[in-house]
Amino acid sequence: MNLLITLLLGAFIILGALAVHLFKRHEIIEQVSIAFACGTMVMLVILDLLPEAFEAVGGGRWYLILLFTLLGVLLLKLLDHWVPDHDDAHGTHHDCTEENVMHIGIMSSVAVLLHNMIEGMAVYSLAMESTRMGLLVALGVGLHNIPMGMIITATLEHEPRRFRWTVLAVAAVSTFLGGLVMHLLSFAVSPFLLGVLIALTLGMLLYIIIFELVPHLLHSPNKKLSIICALAGMALILVSTLFE
Questions:
Q1: pLDDT (tens digit, 9 = 90+) per residue, 47-58?
Q2: How is residue 159 annotated by DSSP?
Q3: Which of 11, 90, 135, 159 is most buried, most CB within 10 Å of its CB?
Q4: 0.85 cut: is pTM over it?
Q5: Angle ∠(35,147,42) on CA atoms, nearest 5
Q6: Which of these, 132, 133, 163, 144, lies nearest to 76 by C-alpha position?
Q7: CA–CA distance, 185 with 180 (Å, rounded to integer)
């Protein structure tokens, strides 16, 4: 079940690619997915990850939780250094040639591959603690990956279709590969190490919320829609706690 959750996580990249081909107003799909992801992630951090981290590591060792949370933030910061801005990916800069756009697409794909393997490892570690929590984090992070699938598709639009879909498939399967690594190493995962992994995941989610999702929402053209979708994401997590 845990491996299926990591496979589901990567499928959202394919959904982003399909959205480019099926819908004309890509910006609406992007805005809704980002706002909903933001709402779910905020509530997951507050209601699930923080309590689980303190329970696994121990409240008296809060400094370890803080340390590994900061490491999680730094880890994604380093990986996202190679992921281009959304505007660059769509070629809105005047000096963005077709060759540069292709280069952006390739670099995006490599960065997403590494990025998603780590996300897959993190989600699998959470699912080891709670299937519900693993599913909800996969949903929140997956919604955040929909725009990335759209970016890869847009930047590789001049490449052959087989090449484009091969890149997308590899990026999507990379979360499963990360989960598979954790599955093979699960025999060595102690309760304390699981708490460390949860703290790292907490840091990664905080990075996504603060540095990626919130800036998008602040600059969204339809802030009312963003607020509604973010509240809907929060409500989903709150309702899910009733079934624990």
A1: 888 888 888 887
A2: S
A3: 135
A4: no
A5: 30
A6: 144
A7: 9
